[in-house]
Amino acid sequence: MSNSPKRIVIVGASLAGARAAHSARAAGHDGPLTLIGAEPHLPYDRPPLSKEFLTGDQDADSLALDPDDAYDDLDVEVMLSTHAVGLDVEARTVAIAPAAGGGAETVPFDGLVIATGAAARPLPGTEGIRGVHTLRTLDDSAAIREGLRAGARVAVVGGGFIGSEVAASAKARGCEATVIEAAPAPLMRGLGAEMGMQAGALHHQNGVDLRLGVGVDGVLGAGQVEAVGLADGSRIEADLVVVGIGVAPNTAWLEGSGLQIDNGVVCDATLCCGPPGIYAVGDVARAPNGWLAPWYGSSPIRVEHWTAAVEHGMAVGRSLVAPDEAVPYLSVPFVWSDQYDARIQIAGHPDAGDHVELLVGSVEDDPESGRAFLAGYRRDGRLSAVMALNAIRPFVRFRRLLAGHPTWEEALELAATLG
Ligand SMILES: Cc1cc2nc3c(=O)[nH]c(=O)nc-3n(C[C@H](O)[C@H](O)[C@H](O)COP(=O)(O)OP(=O)(O)OC[C@H]3O[C@@H](n4cnc5c(N)ncnc54)[C@H](O)[C@@H]3O)c2cc1C
């Protein structure tokens, strides 16, 4: 532990940052540890923001990642409502600006974790129109929840994971929902066309108006939103619009720091950003993942997955304390999404060019058991990914299998045993 830093500063008080704090303490860091977060809340969980919190099945208190006293117990100094506005790598200081004002200050560090995540991209031209929302934070979700009254007309721009989940939650609240997606199917970026169509079927079955292959021309309304105009000339009347068109990593505060910023903070395989003791984790980090090496070599990849944020945070907490023992990040990518009564799970890294084949179950709706299946993605004779819909047990088996880069034949063998 001779190289371990005296003072650790973590910027970004959310999932990856909180896990890094826990992990550094668990690994034996007994010096000062500061967690700096722009939001006014202690770290909380985001996945329910488009699901159980939006439907009203979960309240804000239950989103907390840790009990309120956990940070006291860990002896972590938590600075909420505080933005990091600059990083001086040479001086090893972070410049901060408390939201309450009072001018910028600097916080010195020996070890630094960059965990500033990502921000939802707004739809250009919608600034100042009431009733148009993006969804990233607890406050965003609370504002959307407020508008999800039975009978409200909800237009969702973007049929990715967030948009699809918001549509499902809106239906659960008795709203009318329309999803507008420029691609030919929802979730195409994550799943490819064939499985994207299966995700689209979920919306149809649940009475969502799905507008595919059409872009948004503009959001209409003076003051309050009235409708979304589409590029094909049609108009979707709306009381509420939720925009889910992706995110941008929060790196503005690192401009001029000398760190490599390119769609995230570019890191090496141990999540180190170059200067010793400075790491990036979670949605803001663009790092190689050893599991992807057969296809991407050591190219850095940025993912927006809950599990990766946890794994990054845990790994970096340990690496800060024992930098000489830092190990390259290697993990089978995993993401899930809950929509209507369906749980979608994806492991591995599906690519648009992959051959997709049903391995378990059926895409047809079974009157007794519903729709349940697992599809495999084949690339270069190997299983590159699986996507499961309501097939949790087979998914667990395939996720485990994926760790060893199975051949396609091995995938078929496992499928045969699962009937
Ligand atoms: C609505 C929603 C639903 C999701 N559902 C799923 C799901 O079902 N499955 C799944 O796998 N993943 C899901 N995710 C993704 C998952 O939540 C993210 O991958 C995870 O939150 C990333 O954690 P993070 O700590 O890297 O970043 P974030 O959670 O984005 O946290 C970054 C924090 O840094 C703060 N920050 C930013 N800039 C600064 C600054 N300059 N100074 C100080 N603080 C700053 C931000 O305010 C924020 O609190 C979902 C995300 C959202 C938004």
State the gist of this model.
With 419 residues, this protein is α/β, with parallel strands linked by helices. The protein contains 10 helices and 25 strands. A hairpin with a 4-residue loop joins strand 4 (82-88) and strand 5 (93-98).
List the helices and strands and how they pair.
Blueprint: E1 8-11, H1 15-26, E2 33-36, H2 52-55, H3 70-73, E3 77-79, E4 82-88, E5 93-98, E6 105-108, E7 111-114, E8 118-120, E9 132-134, H4 138-147, E10 153-157, H5 161-172, E11 176-181, H6 188-205, E12 209-212, E13 216-220, E14 227-230, E15 235-237, E16 240-243, E17 247-249, E18 265-266, E19 278-280, E20 285-286, H7 293-296, H8 306-321, E21 334-339, E22 342-348, E23 355-366, E24 370-379, E25 382-389, H9 392-402, H10 408-417
Flavin-adenine dinucleotide is lined by residues 11-17, 36-39, 46-47, 49-50, 83-84, 115-118, 135-136, 162, 250, 253, 282-284, 304-307, 309, 335-337.
Features:
single chain, 419 residues, alpha/beta, FAD/NAD(P)-binding domain, Enolase-like, domain 1, 5-stranded parallel β-sheet, 24% helix, binds flavin-adenine dinucleotide
Provide a descriptive summary of the structure in words:
The protein is 24% helix and 29% strand. The protein has helices spanning 15-26, 52-55, 70-73, 138-147, 161-172, 188-205, 293-296, 306-321, 392-402, 408-417, and strands at 8-11, 33-36, 77-79, 82-88, 93-98, 105-108, 111-114, 118-120, 132-134, 153-157, 176-181, 209-212, 216-220, 227-230, 235-237, 240-243, 247-249, 265-266, 278-280, 285-286, 334-339, 342-348, 355-366, 370-379, 382-389. Strand 1, helix 1 (15-26) and strand 2 form a beta-alpha-beta unit. It has three domains: 8-119 and 248-325, 3-Layer(bba) Sandwich (FAD/NAD(P)-binding domain); 122-245, FAD/NAD(P)-binding domain; 341-417, FAD/NAD-linked reductase, C-terminal dimerisation domain (Enolase-like, domain 1). The chain starts with 7 loop residues before the first strand and ends with a helix. The strands form seven sheets. A five-stranded parallel β-sheet has the order 3-2-1-7-19, covered by helices on one side. A five-stranded parallel β-sheet has the order 9-16-10-11-12, covered by helices on one side. The protein has a five-stranded antiparallel β-sheet with strand order 21-22-25-24-23, sandwiched between helices. The model has no long low-confidence stretch (mean pLDDT 95). With 419 residues, it is α/β, with parallel strands linked by helices. The radius of gyration is 22 Å and the shape is globular. The longest helix is centred in the middle third of the chain and has 18 residues, at 188-205. It binds flavin-adenine dinucleotide. Residues 11-17, 36-39, 46-47, 49-50, 83-84, 115-118, 135-136, 162, 250, 253, 282-284, 304-307, 309, 335-337 line the site of flavin-adenine dinucleotide.
